[in-house]
Amino acid sequence: MAELTYLQAISDALRIEMRRNDKVFVIGEDVGVYGGAFKVTLGFQEEFGPWRVIDAPLAETAIVGAATGAAMMGLRPVAEMQFADFVSCAWDHLVTIAAKQRWRAGTPVPIVVRLPSGGGFSGGPFHSQNPESSFAHIPGLKCVCPATPEDAKGLLISAIEDPNPVLFFEHKHLYRRIKAQVPEERYTTPIGKARTHREGDDISVVTWGAMVYTAEEAAKQLEGDGISVEIVDLRTVMPWDKAAVLETVRKTSKLLVLHEDTHTGGFGAEIAATVAEECFEDLDGPVRRITAPDTPVPFSPPLEKAFIPQVEDVVKGLRELAEY
Amino acid sequence: MAIAREAEPVGSLNEVREAGLDREDLLGIYRNMLITRGVEERGHILYRQGKIPGSFYTGRGNEAASVGVAWAMNHDDVGTPLHRDMGVHITRGVEPWRIFAQYMGRQDGPTHGRDGNVHMADMQLGLLAMVSHLPAMLPVAVGCALSFRIRDERRVALGWFGEGASARGDAHESMTLAGTRKLPIVFICDNNQWAYSTPTYLEYATEHVADRAQAYGFEGVVVDGTDVLAVYREAKRAIDKARNGGGPTLIENLTLRMEGHAVHDDAFYVPKVMFERWAENDPVERFRSWLRDNVGMTDEDEDEITAGVKKLLNDALQRAEESSMPDPSSLLEGVYATPEDLDTPHHK
């Protein structure tokens, strides 16, 4: 075991895969000499050379499109979007080609697109978004949103191994803030399996990404009041671990879904609808959603604080549910 | 003012021999052009009979451009042909009966009824299935070329687009990446002068689409797309150059789309005189005359080829009509790939 930040765990996974499989290569803006905007690939070009750590022109369509073509030819591209927000420029290639090629033409497209996502540092409307729900809606894509260093490493290795296009959402706010013991050897974390972050009996919180820590703070605050909160970290939103969600709801009979993405049509809506359909009889209260409001992500700190769900918002929501 | 090189027509038989084509090749090219046109003519009949769901698209007028380029590809080269490029599928070896099955949404079409018309391709033959968003396959072709460069393979990718699609950003990004990295790719622009109803002067402001190549750091060539031998010569030259590390080329094959955008479109917006002028340069007829004048193709040769094509297409139609419709219960299969799906020649 070694103590790694969330960011170091991502680098570690990528380095392990590049060392063991020469089909794996990295393409993105400033990933080579500069080591990536967040330094995930720092030192990679020295180790693997300029044709496995490829500095691309500022052209997200070409980056994801070329990754798709290279994957069809048998390579395992890992494309980096400098910020998740810029994946909008590559939407067509993910949604029109990569997602559908297996189903309609029998051609698998094993690519990973790394997406530094999320807010909390005044990144403004174009450097802070969490677009996972948009892609979770597209049949053929997988969406991975790790919260811990250990999961970041294991899920990235799984994503690279996976024969499908996988969007790997790495939360920027966790990059250097979160540190933990991570196994040094190679291991995989299954895509589609949730993790119980905290055991509890009274209310379940289902969440993912940086919101796992917001939920944890809220749960700690409620401990003193005798409210026991279970936190399920979904880890991947497509596929999502429906069985784990239904199980925790059946255990506690109350559910709060928490996400940093905006409200309407966010993935929380899918979870709430599924719970209503499949374990209505087990519920002792309405399914509650706490999410960002339906606005672009604001820049100025007080506005951004009002946008991103805060610990006190979650505490309030949990109290209301507890009293219901 | 034109920047791109304007390719000369192919004149003498010597020139053709120098390009590596013997009499058998030449008759083979002619045969493929006849099959290409025949498949689409039969498709029209199927459509009128109500056997083709949705719409129906053809590449009439593009037979020389598509067959000529495909004939210049090596066995292990790859490409992303579009809906006017039936000749590429035929030349790479896609069997016509599977194309008819595809048209009719049958189980034995390459997409098993999951996608229609020319949205198909056989990866075993080095072809990647197109999507409707043009030219979205260009960056994918660039990625194929990138993989060849990464692995130091002497293979070339071909990416097709039209003059309409040249307006989209994908074309620019693809040529930028291919140019900066000098990738082994040839961009083929099927310039058939009409993007649905939009004429060329509303799609690009240069004289030729190929003029843009200079801006990306490689050569652009404009070719008479009705001259199959000129198309072949320029494609071969560009493919060889790419294979030898010389980087990309943009070839613009100038033709006229001799029918509407799709079967529902009567192309009223195309001046009649334009159709008449280009009909005089029909690529199939033009090559037929050349073969009679230059390699002594006789009536007997022609009858033999024509009868062979007719039988091929008759048999193909019959076999396609015998193919069943897809089973609705299969709808959910294969949305996600399994590790076994990677057991292909490309992924080993």
Provide the descriptors you would attach to this structure in a database record.
heterodimer; A: 324 residues; Rossmann fold; 2 domains; 14 strands; 38% helix; B: alpha/beta; six-stranded parallel sheet; two-stranded antiparallel ribbon; 10% strand
The stretches of 5 or more residues of chain B where confidence is low (pLDDT under 50) are none
CATH superfamily of chain B: Thiamin diphosphate (ThDP)-binding fold, Pyr/PP domains
Rg of chain A: 19 Å
Provide the CATH topology of the largest domain in chain A: Rossmann fold
Domain module count of chain A: 2
Order of helices and strands of chain A: EHEHEHEHEHEHEEEEHEEHEHEHH
**Which parts of chain A are unreliable, with pLDDT below 50 for 5 consecutive residues or more?**
none
Tally of separate helices of chain A: 11
Q: How large is the radius of gyration of chain B?
A: 20 Å
- What is the approximate shape of chain B? globular
The largest sheet of chain A has its strands arranged as 3-2-4-5-7-6-12
What class, by secondary structure content of chain A? Answer: alpha/beta
As laid out across the biggest beta sheet of chain B, the strand order is 1-7-8-4-3-2
Mean model confidence by pLDDT of chain B: 96
CATH topology annotation of chain B:
Rossmann fold
